[in-house]
Model the fold of this input.
Amino acid sequence: MSQSSTLMLGFMAGATIMLGLPLGRLRVEAPGARTFLNSTAIGILVFLMWDLLSHAWEPVDTALGRLHAGTGGLGAVVGYGALFLAGLSVGLLSLVGYEMWTSRRDSPGPVVAGPGSMAVTELAGRSSRSPARRLALLIAVGIGLHNFGEGLAIGGSAARGELALATLLVIGFALHNATEGFGIVAPLAAAGDRPSWGFLLFLGLVGGGPTVLGTAVGHRYTSDVLTVVFFTVAAGSILYVVVALLGVAQRGRRRGALYAGLLAGLAAGFITDMVVTAAGA
Done:
């Protein structure tokens, strides 16, 4: 398959993330409904984290099997294991560092009263993004890394001439990405922060665009090393976001809505995965 046709497959898989983004413009007044939306996003992200880690662990598991069978050495186990832990660390700790940096940058600092001094509200408004928007952006970054790995799979199968597999992967990833769009904007809906269409488009590009980039890379080059690195970095970043969203949900004190949303999000993730598996992908 030509590179242009392969890139079109990647675009089709990544573009469906836009389907869930308009939900970010919903105005949700009921606290219970906000908690449900927020926790549904958590459920979707927990499924994605499991999906990422299970795929990233496959090369480690294969290396362990070969070591046990006497057909492989310890070096591959140690190498893939180190990559696995390093990717998780980078994905998680880089976002922790980013949060600390933005907190210091957005801190208003001491206010000096007097002629020409700014009001406290002006100083506090120096940040162009609310906490909900920053969280939505972090989710989009984590999902973008995840979708880069999906693009690698699409590009690699197309380059090997496995067109049926590539088509099934596109269908499956497109289904997943439709739920991921909601996962990105759920914090906005839960906080009652109604973003512009331009910001939603930006989130869609951050979350879905890497699918096309990964398809281009996978069409030319792919390896287990690259898969482990990107999937574990994505899993680490999603773990950070899950912890942050859980903190938001706990403050709502709506435990029934919290657990119902978690179950709904997990169900959405696993049901789409079952559809893909049943199709043979």
